[in-house]
Each structure stands twice: as C-alpha cells, then as structure tokens.
Protein 1
Amino acid sequence: MKMEPQVNLLVIVADQCRYDCIGYARKYPVRTPNLDRLASAGAWFTNAFTPIPVCCPARQAFIRGRRAETFGALWNFSGALKVSALSPEQYAWPKELSEAYRSCYIGKWGVNPEHDPMEYGFGEYIGEREYAEFRKQTGIPAPSANGYFGENDRISLEQSRTHWLSSQAVRRIHAFAKERKPWHLQVHFPEPHLPCRPSSPFSEMYSPADIPEWHNFKESFAGKPYIQKQQLYNWGIEGYTWQDWSEIVARYYAVISQMDDAVGHILQALEDANQAEHTIVVFTADHGDMCGAHRMMDKHYILYDDVVKVPLIVRWPGMVRNGTVCDRFVCNMLDLPPTLLEAAGRMPASADFHGRSLLPLLQGAPVPDWREEAVATYNGQQFGLYTQRMIRTNEWKYIWNTTDTDELYHLEDDPGELVNRIGDSSCRNVVAELRTRLYQTLLAEGDGLVQNEWMRDQLLRGRKL
C-alpha cells in the first residue's frame, strides 16, 4: 500500500561540475557558500560517482533508474552516430509521482531529442529554448566566438542563464506553496559545462594568477591508452601550459560560484514560502570535467576521478542530521530514484532499479551489505567509438579498455592517477580480483558487453594484453 506523500522534492543538478570544486570538499579555492550551508545542514557524500560521465546517457540513467547501456543510451544523441534514447513508453520514475504531486522540470533535458519531460511524468517544462527566446526578445547580445574556451558574458547577472532559470524555480516554489499538494521540482543548470561565460561580479572573482594547478596536471601519458594524448591534438591544446589553462579554470570557478548564487535564491525561496522544513533538497551533477586536469579537456575516453566523481548533497530537515558525512560508495543517478520514491512513499513493488535507497545511510543505520566499490562505464563519442568499464575501491581503480591497454591506479599512493601499474607483475592478483568483481557487476546488471565469450575471457581468463 502506497503511503500518502508528505514531503516535497527539490532536485538540483549541475552539468559537468567537479566534486572537488565545491567549497565543502575543501580541495580547491572555489567559493560556494550556499552549497556549503546546504551540506552543513544535511549530508555530504565523499564517494559519490556517476554511472557514466556523459550528459545524455547519465540523465537518461537517472530518469530510468538503470544503467544507460541496458536500454541503448550509449552516448550523446547530438554529437556522434545516431543512438537510442529513453522513450516515453519506457519506465520513468517521475511517473510514479504524477498523480499525487505537482511537478515541474526546469533547465537542461538531454533525455530524448524529440520528447520533453512532460511525457516522462512532469506537469510542466521550462527549458533552455525558453531562455534563448528570452535572450532574443530582450535584445541581449550573443556571446563572442571563443568557442569551448569561454569568455566573460556582457549581460547582467539577472539576465544570465543561471539566474533566469533560478527565477523560474523561485516562481514555481511560491506557486506550489499555495496549493495543498506536495510538489516535485527539478532544476538542471547547464552550468558549469564549457564554454564558461560568467557575468559580473563573478567574472572578476578569480584571478588566473591565483588558480592552483590541478594536482594531476603534469601528465606524461606514459603507459596510457593512445586516445588520451590524441585528444590534446583533436582539441588543439597539445602545447598548453598551466598559464594557458589558468584563465579557463578561473572562468570555470567563476561559473560555479555564479551557479551557487542562483542556488541560494532557490533555497531562500523555500524559506520565504515556508516550504524548507517539508522539502528534501538534493544537489548533484551528471559528471565532472577535466578542464586542464591531466592536460585534457572535457570528459571523453577517460574514467579518471575528475569526471566520474561527483558532488552529492542531501538535506532533509528532521530526518538527516546536520553535518552528516557519508563515505560509502554511492551512484548518484542510480541511487537517487529509489531514495526519492521511498521518501515520498511511492516506491513501486516491481521496481527494477540498479541502485539502492540511500535512506538507511542518511539516517545513520548500519548497512553491512552496502557495495564496496564504484562502477562506471563509457562507450564513445565525437572522436570515435571506444569502450571502457571501471571498478574503483578505496585503494585501487581498474579500467578495462577493450581495444587498448588497461589501466590500474593505486589511489592511496597515486591519487592523481598518473602512474598506470597495469604492467606491474606485483599487481597481478589485484587485477584478477578487480576484473572478476567488475565482470560480476556488469553481468548482474545486464551489460551486454560481457555477454559473449570473447569479452568474458578478457576479464575472467586474463586474455588481455
């Protein structure tokens, strides 16, 4: 029997936001006071990972609650060969809330190029197209042509995309508060995805001279798969020094701080509308960004922590203790669907999610059978098809590159993932164990990559160079 829902759901998702670029992570000097306060009033996850570090399949995995490969969402449907996308006829967990909840989806979609969120259980949709129309109608000048490297935007902060989207969310919260029904609001910022175009005053917040090098900037690519260094030539950045990158990273910091300010307006609206005490607030990201780490750009053909590790914050007043820090391995896009449905009392009896509800972890309950690793995948994109599968524990990360050399990193000694130890004979037992664990997870979750003898033999019989 389904419980009558009593809690509102506010889910805020950033696009391409690194875990270590939220102030609460205490890694890099990015100022995010609103997200820091949100984390201090709820739970901060130190080991949250995306199931796949590519925008569209990650978002489809979130709406479906299963790994993207199991329903054909392999890469972005706008940037390479044609690929399947989650269709409205397939299961989407927001539909479970459609009768009991008022709902709205704001911002970046990326789940299907032809069908919008209203066909997946949402009652209203305000997307990037509406912002583009606003910009056109108000005569706001187009950005200059600096491509993916970004530049400062000449528009006012109030006219920026971050703050225009947050203003839409603020209006919906106040409108929802006037009704008796609980509500479900998702706000998906396209920021800080490159190109980064901060507005004043955030565009002046960070000086490139003050931006510290990424801890893994000095990458040699020795013993690494060919495609990693090749990407530098694809992007035209093979000669970039840290001085070149620091300007780009300064804008990345600035856009994150600008987004944080927009999030602050949304959180203040909860207070003003007397909704905060009855609302679960989630902040996370679809994946991270290289932005110069390992001298690389964007997020493709790699499964470094820079792109697979994500921020995850959950605040639930009265249910989650302030300042909770959880270091268990969680998969944000797969664990959040059962978490939110269980919290709302709408968990379907026949749920086939790949994730697990985070509620026991949020409430401090012992969960002895919780997973001890993160698993992530990659399938290819604009520079050609390339299949990867990753398993990561606290000590080790193993990456199965089916058409190139594998990767093995000892994270305790090498947190920057700079030294590939796959050829180290002393690590053979570690590699064999991780390959077996990876195979078992992929097989159990229906990944077709391991469902043939040739791929199986690579992992279980060591038939891999």
Protein 2
Amino acid sequence: MKSLSRRRLLQITGGLALASAAPARAGVAIGEDWSSDVGILRRAWETLHPGLYRYATPAEVTGRLDRLATEWAAPGSFRDRFAALTRVTASIRCGHTFPSPYNASDAVVARMYPDRSLVPFRFVWINGRMVVTRDDSAGALFPRGSQITAIDGVPTSDILARLMPLARADGASDAKRVSLMEVRGDDGYETFDIHLPLILPIRDIAAFTLSDGPTVRADLLTLAERKAGAPDAGQPDGDGNPWTLERGADGIARLTMPGWALYNSDFDWEAWLGRVMDDLTGDGARGLIVDLRGNEGGEDCGNVILSRLIDRDLPLSRSQRFVRYRRAPDNLRPHLDTWDRSFLDWGDQAVGPDERGFYRLTRYDDGAETTLIQPQGPRFAGPVVVLCDASNSSATFQFAQAVKDAGLATLLGTTTGGNRRGINGGAFFFLRLPASGIEIDLPLIAGFPDTPQPDAAIEPDVFVPTTAADIAAGRDPQMAAATARILNA
C-alpha cells in the first residue's frame, strides 16, 4: 500500500479553493458561529476515522469536540480558533490528521500567515535550544551554529513545550513532534512557522537571546520571504530526478533521497533505482549509504532497494488494514474531497464489520505482491547503512522497520517517526469545513500489527545525534559514522 506524504496532497487534488474564508488579521475578532463545523468534524471522525480511538476513549474525544464547539461559537480571532482546533486534531495522536495548508484555499493560507512573524533563520532543536543551520536575517545576525535560548524573553525550552501539544505525530512519537517544530527548509509550509504565532504573538521584530549572552533584535520574515529562501522545498515535477547518487574515491555509493512523494512526477523512478542497485554489484561498490533524513515518505520506493538485498522472498510486516466504513454517508459527501472517488465506497473490498465496528480492507492486503518482496536483479551483498531520523513516519518508517526486522542494513542516526503500534494513512479524504473554510486531512486506513507492540517508533541500530558544535563546524556526523562503519566492515 502506498503511503501519502502530506506535501503532495495539494498537487494531487488541484488545490481547490474555498471562497467562504476571507483573509483577516490575526488579532481581529471573528463574530460568526463556527460550531456547525465541529458537528461536521464529529460526524466525519466518528464515521470514517479508523484511528480515532487508538489512543483516546470515545468520552475523551467527545469532551474535546464539545469544548471546541463552545470556543468556536464565541467571538475570537482566527489564530485563537485555529489553535483550539489544532490542539484537538493533535490530541488524536495521528501523524496524518491535521489542518493542512497544502490542501487549504489561498484565503485560509493567508489567515495562517497574516503577519511578518517568521523567525529569520533555519534551525533544529538541541537540548531545548534553537541551533541555527542557516541565517536568513538581513544583517547576518545569526551565524551557523548560533544557539537561541529565548525569544522576547520567553525561554526556548518553554516555547518548545508549548508547541508540542500542537504537533501531529503517532502515539508517543515525540521525536517526530520536535522534528516538525524545526525549520529545515524541506517544507513549503513549515509547521513551526504556522504554530509559533499561536503561542507567542510576535510580529515585525523580535528579540532573540543567544547562548553566549547578547540579545539581538531582528526583523521577522513573511511567508513569501521564507519561500524565496527555500528553493529546495519545492516538489519534483516533470521527469526530473529528485535523488542523487555519488560514488566516492573510497568506493562507497551514497544515495540521497530527500523524498519519495513522486505521485505528480513523470520520473521513472523504479527503472532508475533498479539500475542503480544492479550497477552496485557490477561496479564492485564497497558499500551503500541510503540517506533518508528529512524524508517523510510517499511511494514505496524502498521496495526496489530491498529486492536487491535479498536472495529469497522477504515477507513484509503483516499489519492488516481496516476502515471504519464501507460507504461514506451521503450527508458527509459534500464536505469530502479526494483524488480517488473509489474511497467513497469500498464495496465488497471492505469485509465486516467485526465486533469492534471495523471492516477489513482487502484492496491492499490480498496477494503476494503486497505481502512479499521478491528478489530482483543481482543481489548486492556489500554492507548497507540507512540514515534515519524522526521525519521517517510513513513509507520511510515502514522501510526502516523492514530493514531492521530483516537485518538487511544498519539503521544509523536518530529515532524515527511513526509508531510500531501501526499508523493511519494510505488513503485520505480532505474534509472541508464550510463555515471556517479550514480543511482537515482525514486518513481512511488503519494498520494494526498482528502482535502487541510498544507505543514507540523505531530506534536505530547505531544512535548518532548532531551537536551544536557539528552544525557550527559544518560536520555531518551521521554520514561520517556510516562511512567509517562501511570502511571498517
């Protein structure tokens, strides 16, 4: 089954606009009663969302939605209402359930970004500090490796703690939540940029306290300026190859794959990747490093790699897939958008319901193609290292799990995203709420493992974090450790 990356959903659906939402400044109170949207959201989740009660009881979900309806009935700013909604969607603890700017109208995106309120640098979180990876300020105020400890006097550790309940992630996968609240330049809409103004109302200029003492006042950025400074956040189109392969003088092949979301691309990735893997054996490569850092997922591209690392059939993890419905209710259909209308009616591909009210989905689970990886081409028997991090939460999470379970490669880096108890995804509705104009991604398929699993992501075989000193010096500790591992094999 293919797992969709959130960054491709807008392109798939064509980015349909909703005229009902007009731009408004962040602090302007909205008088309209939006509580009818909560009723639509409640019906859609209770009827369609297969992971709604994976980490919450029906009573907990009902209470959260009741409170949201009360908040949305009272006057409040767009940001206050959006923050209240985001807390509720994040509380489902599903990495694919959230109000998405990628599938929103231009008017709603304008409401998400009404001000000059984006920090003028890229950064990652290390020990509660924002460590700068690229300076985008007008005065070169934040050299690479600078550590920000407060914004407008608020400690960054407190800021991160307040942002965590707004982040979408599966179960207890907090590493994914932290990762989402970084600005790395690999997203057209950075999650941090949307959510920081919800908990810290900065605008135009902010004061940034550095770890070595001084406080620097700096102009903030607009969304347009952020996008202009992040050309690498664009999505592949046409037949362009978004991946790179380098062969070093040390004989190691390094395959960098920042994304597997190739739904709107004409690039023949299966043929290209198959040739790459076949050539490794013919060229006598000393080893292979597959760099998946920053890659949430998309197509099941990892299956091509797996097929060249095995000499016998490889059974995939048997997580049966379930849906909550056979046919979407007629009264919800006006609010449901998707790229595949067959999701509205699974027909006899949804078997059940069982005692829990689930239908087992046979559309993706039946047949050897979905349960086995078969050997293809010449087997590469050299050492393989896969670089992983908390971004790996959909197809890349599943690839990391397969690699680790089968012992086909060394996972090196930091804890992945996703969750061993299963994730929700595979097929989606884009739930469009008419009063607010907000869209919420609604995953339709839940995977549940055959045996009890911990509420946790995948831990690497070799844990290699990045330090602030690494960033300041321009070092890549994961790549260096992977290289040393292969050379010493």
Protein 3
Amino acid sequence: MEKLLVLYPAQPNAEAFKTYYVQNHVPLVRKLPGLRTLRYSIDVQSLAGDASFFCVFEGEFADREALRAAMGSPEGHAVAEDVPKFAQVAPIVLRYSVEHEV
C-alpha cells in the first residue's frame, strides 16, 4: 500500500481555508483514480499543545504506481492546481509505502 500524506501549516485565514477545503478541494480529491480511502482532519494539535500543522490529509493507493498514475492524471493535475486557491502557506507533501501493518 502507498500513502499520500499532506501536512498543511497554520493558515492566515483558518475559516476560509476550512470552508474551501471541505466544499471544493476534498470533492476534487475524491475523483482521483485509484484512491482507496481518504482521511483528513482540521485543527490538528500536538500532544504538547503546540501544533505545527493546521490540517492533515491521508490518502491510500494500492501501490506506488497507482499513486503516480493518479497524480499524473487530469484529476491529479486539477487537485494540485487547486491547492494555491485555499492554502496561502504551502503544504508539505509526503508519500510512503506501508511496509508492515499490524
């Protein structure tokens, strides 16, 4: 399994970010070919209470090739091009393979 993890830092206008993200961006993400599941959370907090990130997104794909194909598709390009419309502070985007699952 391949995961896509997107970490959004604090944004200058949290409410505008949240509204656009939920109403516009997540529906675009749902159209990614090969996306098995997605999860997101807004207003992320660290255990110490000093959150470095405001929003976290996690998407699951069958494998690395499925993720590459999704991000290279027209839907993937639409998702990437949409990010600057709501994220004034750019996110950190990570991908990783799940090597062990309990």
Protein 4
Amino acid sequence: MTTIAILGNGRVGGTLATALTGAGHEVTVAGRAPGAAADAARTAQVVINATPGAGSLDRLTALREELRGKLLVDVSNATVDGPDGLPADLLYPRSSLAEQLQEALPGTHVVKTLNTMLFTVMTAPATLDQAPEVFLSGEEPQAKEVVRELLMDLGWRKEWITDLGGIRTARATEAAVLFVPHVIRAGGFAPFAISIAR
C-alpha cells in the first residue's frame, strides 16, 4: 500500500482517486481549501499533480518544502486553450510542464505519465479496442519503477508501458495534447490513447 496525495479534485483527480483507492492504496484528494494541498503532500509518499496545467507550476512551487524528497507524478498538460476550451497551443513550447517542475523542485523526483489519453482511459485502458500505450519520462529509475507499479494497479499491462528516458522526453508527450481537439472534433468525446504501432 502506498500513501498517495492527489492535487486536483476534477475529473482526472477523482477518477484516479477512485481507482487507486480500489487498488488498496491510501488516497487523499486535496481540493482548493487553504492549506489542503500542503497538508496532503506533507504526509504522502507519492503526490499526483492533477491540477490544470496552466497553473500547476505556481501551485507546486509553493509546496517546495512539502514535496522535498517525494515522488511527484505529473499527469497534466500545460496548454493555452482556444475559444472552445480545447487545447490550442503549448504553454511551454520549447520545454514541458514536467521539465519546469523538475527545475523548480530539484529535491523532488518528477515522473511524467498518463498525459496522452482521454482521462477515462487512465484507469480503464483495457476498454479500448486496441492495445493502448502509456509513457514514462523522468530522471530517477527507482521513481519510474514505483510509477510503473501504480500504472499496473490501474490496469496497464507491463508491455503497454514505455519508458522514454529522462524528463526532457516529456516535451514530446506533452506536445501530443495538440492532437486532442482534432481527435475529439473528428470522432466525438470517445475514449482514446495516443500509442505507437509496431
């Protein structure tokens, strides 16, 4: 059992909380109440960033001390939204949110994952007609191994998990969010994941 704090109580945070609790982990979801995020992060072994990506850097930088020595799993994408509310551009076009977080939080192990799919697939990958893929980006091998185990608890098979390498590789998966509005407009709000066919 892992003690997990999820920052963000929207659809992504709620979906992850339900699934991880069902897998036997001790999960706390921090809402917007003053001090809630700090209290949750302070007592957790793993912290999941499910806050809106555009404001994640400021929110998490404010928790630098609480996150020191912790594993931070970043599932958010930092985008500039278009008039329809869907991603239109990247907030960090020559970088990524994960890289920005790792630079701002040098005492924290940041791992990027689960950001290349509709949120419903994060906890139910086997519901897709084809084998999906989920990617890992991060500097610390042991931290990525912990995240790999959590992904398997969420229903991801070992062969569906691809370690891309260091945190810099997160800029590739974060850029994939630009597919999302076009996929949704073309096929509706149906579950999907961006995967590599081999």
